[in-house]
Specification:
Layout (H helix, E strand, L loop, with lengths): L20 H8 L3 H10 L6 E3 L3 E3 L2 H16 L4 H11 L4 H23 L1
Antiparallel strand pairs: 1-2
Length: 117
């Protein structure tokens, strides 16, 4: 799945429930129009849509976008190849997704602990 080292230059994901398309764009270093296009190409990327068709992404969406970004921009996959890779790995990569979430939560907790001292 996602190589933890491949996203070192990306900012940490804040501890929020929902993110706007602008926030996700900054967190993943991908323009908003690219995110909208990827929604059409990757069925697993499906943000919540609310009033006025506004998109609200959750943490798992942000992690998925970072994975797609890595496959396309860093590993050289085509859209079709990345889609097949994601579909093929969906079941077996779940532990990696959890590991990434644990790392992110741990980093956020350490930041909070640092603020409290």
């Amino acid at each position: 799945m996602l190589d933890p080292g491949s996203n070192r230059e990306l900012p940490p994901i804040p501890a929020k429930r929902y993110f706007t398309i602008g926030e996700v764009s900054e967190l993943c270093a991908v323009k908003p129009h690219v995110l909208r296009y990827w929604e059409q190409e990757f069925s697993s990327l499906n943000p919540v849509k609310r009033r006025g068709n506004r998109r609200y992404y959750q943490r798992h969406d942000v992690l998925m976008i970072r994975q797609i970004r890595s496959l396309l921009y860093e590993q050289g996959f085509t859209i079709t190849g990345a889609r097949q890779r994601l579909q093929g790995e969906q079941v077996k990569t779940e532990p990696h997704l959890s590991l990434e979430v644990v790392r992110q939560v741990r980093q956020e907790l350490e930041e909070i602990l640092h603020l409290l001292h």
